[in-house]
Fold this sequence. Notes:
heterotetramer; A: alpha+beta; Aldehyde Oxidoreductase, domain 3; 4-stranded antiparallel beta sheet; 4 helices; 8 strands; about 35% helix; globular; C: alpha+beta; Ubiquitin-like (UB roll); 5 strands; about 20% helix; about 25% strand
Amino acid sequence: MDAGASDVRLLTESFDPAAALGAFTDAHRAAGGVVGFIGQVRAGDGVEALELRHYDPITLPAMCDLAGRVRARWALDGLLIVHRTGVMHPGDPIVLVAAAARHRRDAFAAADFAMDHLKSESWFWKREKAHGAWRWIEPRAEDFEDIRRWG
Amino acid sequence: MDAGASDVRLLTESFDPAAALGAFTDAHRAAGGVVGFIGQVRAGDGVEALELRHYDPITLPAMCDLAGRVRARWALDGLLIVHRTGVMHPGDPIVLVAAAARHRRDAFAAADFAMDHLKSESWFWKREKAHGAWRWIEPRAEDFEDIRRWG
Amino acid sequence: MPLKLVFLGRLEDVAGAPDREVAGADSIEGVLAALEPELAAALREPRIRLAVNGVLLAGGDAPALSHGDEIAFLPPVSGG
Amino acid sequence: MPLKLVFLGRLEDVAGAPDREVAGADSIEGVLAALEPELAAALREPRIRLAVNGVLLAGGDAPALSHGDEIAFLPPVSGG
Lengths: 151, 151, 80, 80
């Protein structure tokens, strides 16, 4: 892998976010810092399962486009975006974003920006199963507030 | 481990930050998100080795105090701070900070705050070896600018 | 000249399936006119975006359709 | 009535060792007065913090010393 390239993955099966973050960190030894965000299905909310649906021709290309915008905005040594699609259960990882940078501040801002935009703009449709019944989730106002911070 | 407690460690031997972050994430399944920062000795700068010295009676207690301030400021499910002391080489991990929270924004802010304060206030003295000679490192103005953001 | 319709998110429930093959039509309006009224109404909601063969349409686009085209109906995303 | 002095960071280079046992003295001023002048000057720099038995002194503190006390001289930290 070109150390300067972004690594963007849309996965239909579960993954190990800590192992992926470890491999990413090892691959960027010239970076002083790596910021990672791991999002997982919350346990204890009464949600039995969560399903993300995507649309092949659009979802991954838009994630790659987001990665390009992040790279253009901050000086990074590397960027990793891994997102699950399909059915997940409490405790399962949903997303990993990791940014490696020479300067800590760039890595924090890049990971934060990428997460805000993945949450509000990425092409996923979500439904949750509770008490045995599936229900589609509408967009949250909070996600749009998060994204507005970036101007 | 009490899921609500903070986990603060000062290590004299190397550690695996990705594995530690994975265990932390697994231990906080009720958190929707975990933000981790991994700091490592930069490779390629001509630095052959880096040594952090600490003072036992003060360094770890101050790290625990910082953890308490972070917990008081944000609603977290868990906080992990791991810091190396001793001699390290390029690519070796120096620090891992991880914050688990129900809300992504809290986890980002808490990890960011903890890193800014570890960098500028924690009781470590650093020296670097380059071209075979050790040199003590003075505090950086940039670290004090980072900390001022938090008011 | 069949077309493939793809229904994302809650539109899948309205359509009863994630996708459907329909007889050809020259335009999207022609496709919608041939569907059951409840589904057509759901697909016409202003917040529904359309993509033809993976290309998002801008508001006001009314592309001519060809054999085998795939038309996707995309409700507001609910986030990753 | 020996005391233990601990020199952190670059003070270790000035002292020639990370720590040193010295003969007792009643006060920090008494300890400093008995050291070689170059080291005493380095330890007196205003940015050097002191800790006695692991407790940081505030500016102006002049604690009485007891047998076995550990006095640490802490230059500005260089960050983790």
